[in-house]
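OP here, attaching both records as promised.
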Amino acid sequence: MTPRVGIVGSGPAGIYAADALLKALPEVSIDLFERMPAPFGLIRYGVAPDHPRIKGIITALHQVLDKPQVRLLGNVDYGTDIHLDDLRTFYDAVIFATGAEADRALDIPGIELAGSYGAADFVSWYDGHPDVPRAWPLHAERVAVLGVGNVALDVARVLAKTADELLPTEIPPNVYQGLANNKAVEVHVFGRRGPAQAKFTPLELRELDHSPSIEVIVDPADIDYDAGSEAARRQSKQVDMVANTLEQWAIRDPGTRPHKLFLHFFESPVEVLGADGRVVALRTERTRLDGSGNVQGTGVFRDWPVGAVYRAVGYLSRNLAKLPFDDRAGVVPNEAGRVLIDEDAHGAARHLPGVYVTGWIKRGPIGLIGHTKGDANETVACLLADRERLTGASEPDPGAVLEFLAAKGVGYTTWPGWRRLDEYERGLGALAGRERVKVVERAEMVRVSLGPDHES
């Protein structure tokens, strides 16, 4: 009998898992469930629109979804439209690849004030996510971004660029209009440690300086290294390249570009200050290196007048119904991808039979997209090793799950539906002289995906 596997999540993690399964077990039958009407997860809704080279990964993902053994079932919400018991009815094994799209909390006073935002929410807005508001308040002339990773750079760059610079990308009309009204002229990015501890990738960092409207400014006083920092530079070419770029920016003469983007190091956010319930400033404590690459506070504080604060301190996965969850780590407890329930009386691990995880829900939101392939290979290897012990689906016919969804009134989308939506978005782009204009409204995405035969 053809083995049946259900994968929840059609971002890179889920699609790489499907690819690994196909390579190891060509006769496998795979259904990819996706909460959104369109596939590709954070590639579509978590990558800045002015990064087409990263979005180019979609070309490789297309090749997997084009395989006849793979079926996409979009607009299906796990925990609402379908549950774990349902999946175990229709599939021999289930892999969860739901990623991480929420913002990690930052526990400092004032973080709840109006004008304080999570970076992930802002990214979802400018990427045209259908489940976020269509408008975004961009009234602040000075903005703080907390964090020194690539998401912080994306947020800072989008805030500092002009709307017309981003118009050639796939941003939808509501995002263009919002950015056209953006009042920000100063963006301040804060890291509590030094240049050698920043999590930027060199290419992402250098791209900041390519915009004709953004003047990147680094204070020479923030260029400092201890023994731990120097060791990090010797051990990692990327760390050394980032440090070199920051050093070059710190010693150059100021330019005349209209929007200023400051990269601050050794400034640890300790409080968001407010008046009348709104953000008016950010308070930081100056830090210094302790010899190991870590820092300690100096007791010297500074208030930075800003009208908005964006925290880019990490993504967080959401708890999945009927699965164990580690709230602190933000992952499903697992061993090499096998979902871990607990330990038996002898201390041996007990796993949830036939249920696996991969990607950020497995290891946390760390690493680049490429790391996800290794994750998927490890998880799939465990699934294949367990194959003979799996209970198996009680209703393995591929039509059974479609009948189940139809009976619940779920208007699920498919891979041919994505092709229709893709063509439609490209058509909108062609009318505007652009490659694509992204559709934002979920109802419109579903309508286009389902095609004229489903219109009432």
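Record two, same layout:
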Amino acid sequence: MADQLEVAVLGTGFIGAAMARNLCRTGHAVRVWNRTRAKAEPLAADGARITDDAADAVRGADVVLTTLFDGPAVHETMAAAAPGLRPGTVWLQVSTVSPAELPPLAELAAAHGLVLLDSPVLGTRGPAEQGKLVVLVAGPEGALETVASVLDAVGQRTVRVGDDAASGAATRLKLVCNSWVLALTHGTAEALALADGLGVDPRGFLDAVAGGGLDCGYLRVKSAAILDDDYTPSFALTTAAKDARLIVAAGEAAGVRLDVAEAGAGRFARAQEQGHGAKDMAATYFASFDA
């Protein structure tokens, strides 16, 4: 059983809800808040205490996790939580945000005496539910020791990428990783769309590449979603579209042309316009066809 810590989870989407459940399961005292309370309420059955506002959730917490949609949502929520924050609390900032948003978040942390860890994760709904995320962390070593039981509860591996959260080192690595994930998803969707257009059996394509250098797990997972017409979200297209915009903007800021990422962002935008935003990001498949 892990050392019991008081943990506040702000945001109960796929990742936040899974983290909260795994923290409850491993003996932590968990309080959760979500903008829409009804989405958080199922966690009460797992032992989490549901709160009506972010300040109540963080009051007395040893650790605060933010698992929200984007940087503005993180900043707004933590500012609203300020009356309940206490100096010395470790803030695990899990949400995928822009590297440019880390310094303002670090300033907010410093203003309230918090110890900020830039800690985005790799993994979708399944790995999150199984406690098998990969956590990328930038922040002071001592803080990592404090939250070791939390990291063990939510992830199978922690990758430390620096000791300065404000540098955004972990967030920058997350965007690089996500650029690859999104490219694989678009590539899978386009290959199957082309197969459809050319009258090729898509399963013949999958058989042709099976077991070789062209094969990979993501090809299999996203192909299955498309071929089975099952777009139950493990990584929602709306969230993928947001991440794609962050990746393109980060590339522009660094003077790097990302033609594939920019085109992919366009595919996500088109699929959203077609009404597929709430589906899994494999629904980029539909962007290859007229609505």
